[in-house]
Amino acid sequence: MAEPHPITRRAFLGGLGLAGIAGGAAAARAWLPGDSGIVHAQDHQPGEPMPMTHNMVEGDVDPATNGFDPTAILTDFDYGTVSTLAGGQTLREYTIVASEKLIEIAPGVTFPAWVYNGRVPGPTIRCTQGDRLRITFTNGTTHPHSIHFHGIHRPSMDGMTPVQPGETFVYEFDAEPFGLHLYHCHTIPFRRHIHKGLYGTLIIDPPTPRPAAKELVMMMNAFDTNFDTENEFYAVNTVAFHYARHPISVTLNELVRIYLVNITEFDPVNSFHLHAGMFNLYRTGTRLEPHEYTDIVTMGQGERHILEFTLKFPGQYMFHAHQSEFSELGWLGIFDVPGTSAAAFATPNIAGICDLTAPTGASA
C-alpha cells in the first residue's frame, strides 16, 4: 500500500496544490478559486451559455492513460457471448479478470487501483431475466478476490469464497429478478477491496423491454488518495469532473434513463440532484411503475435506482451530489441539450455552487 500523504480533502478546498499523491502524480495541479461575478438569473437569455462557478483541477485526463473513457462507460453494455442451451434458455458467457493498475482519477493525480477487466468501474453486465449467466473469473492480482453479485442465486455462487492469486472460478446462475443490480469483491477487508475499484453494474432487463430511451450507466464512486479513510476525490465513473469537461449530449424531449448505482466507501450516503428538471424514480428497478417524482435521491452504499426524465428546454443542465463538498471535489456534470455551447463549462470554479448564470454583458 502506498504511504499516506498528509493532504486531506479539507486542504484541497483551501486551495492547496497537489503533488505526489498515492502512487505519485506525474505533475502537480492547483485548485484555485475562480472569479465569480454577480449573478442575475433573470438576465440569462435562451441560447446563451451559462458559465458555472466551480473550480476544477487544471487540465484533463486522457482516456488513453487509463485505458478506459468515462464517456464510453456510460453506454458500454456487455451482453456477453450468446448461445442457446438445450431447452431454449439463453446462455450468456463473460470473462472477468482482476488485476492491479495505476489509474488517473484527476489530472496529474494517480491511484493504485484493483480493477475488473482493466477499468473502474468494471464492465456493465447486461442480460434479460431468465438468462443463464456464466462468468469465468480469474484473479490476476497478488491478493485474494471474488465477485459477489446482488440478486437471487444459490449461496455457492455468492462470492463468499476468495479466489486465490492465479486461480479461476466460474460463477453460474439464472438472472433474476429484473432490475438494476451491482457486483463487487466480497473479500476481507471489504471496504479496502471495494474502495480500490473492484465493482461494476449488473442490469437485468424485464422480459418485455422498457420503452426506448437514451440509457446511461452512472456509478457514483470516490477515492481516498492518502489512505486515511477520508475521500479526497468524488466522481461518477471514476474521473473527477469528467462530465463537466465533457457534457453529456441529450436531445430535446428525449427520454433519458439513468442506471444509477452508489458504491462510495467511507461516506454514509451519496446523492444525485438534477437541476432544472425532475425525474421518475424506480427504486432498485424491480418495478415498472415509478415510486416517486423528484429532483433528488439520497442513497447508501449498494443502493441503486433507475431514473427517467426528459428535458424540455434547450440549455445546459447541471447534475451533482447534493453534498456540496462532494460536488466541489469532483462529483458534478452537465447534460447539454442542443441550442447552447458547452464551452462555458471548460474552466468552472468552486466559489459558488449554486451560481450558474453570468451577469448581462459578461463573457462566457
3D structure, described in words:
The protein contains six helices and 23 strands. It is mostly beta strands and 364 residues long. The protein has two domains: 167 residues, Cupredoxins -  blue copper proteins (Immunoglobulin-like); 130 residues, Sandwich (Immunoglobulin-like). The strands form five sheets. Strands 14-13-16-21-18-19 form a six-stranded mixed sheet, with no helix packed on it. Strands 3-7-12-11-9 form a five-stranded mixed sheet, with no helix packed on it. The chain is globular and about 50 Å long.
How would you briefly describe this protein structure?
8% of the residues lie in helices and 35% in strands. It has 364 residues and is mainly beta.
Q: How many helices does DSSP assign?
A: 6
Determine the CATH topology of the largest domain.
Immunoglobulin-like
Mean pLDDT: 84
The portion of residues assigned to helices is: under 10%
Oligomer: single chain
Task: Kindly list the characteristics that best describe this protein.
globular, Immunoglobulin-like, single chain, 364 residues, five-stranded mixed beta sheet, disordered C terminus, 6 helices, six-stranded mixed beta sheet, mainly beta
Topology:
Elements: H1 9-13, E1 17-18, E2 29-30, H2 63-66, H3 70-73, E3 77-78, E4 81-84, E5 90-106, E6 109-116, E7 124-128, E8 132-139, E9 148-149, E10 168-174, E11 179-184, H4 190-195, E12 199-205, E13 214-223, E14 233-236, H5 242-245, E15 248-249, E16 256-262, E17 270-274, E18 279-283, E19 292-294, E20 296-299, E21 304-309, E22 315-320, H6 324-328, E23 332-337
Parallel strand pairs: 3-7, 5-8, 7-12, 13-16, 15-23
Antiparallel strand pairs: 1-2, 4-5, 5-6, 8-10, 9-11, 11-12, 13-14, 16-21, 17-20, 17-22, 18-19, 18-21, 22-23
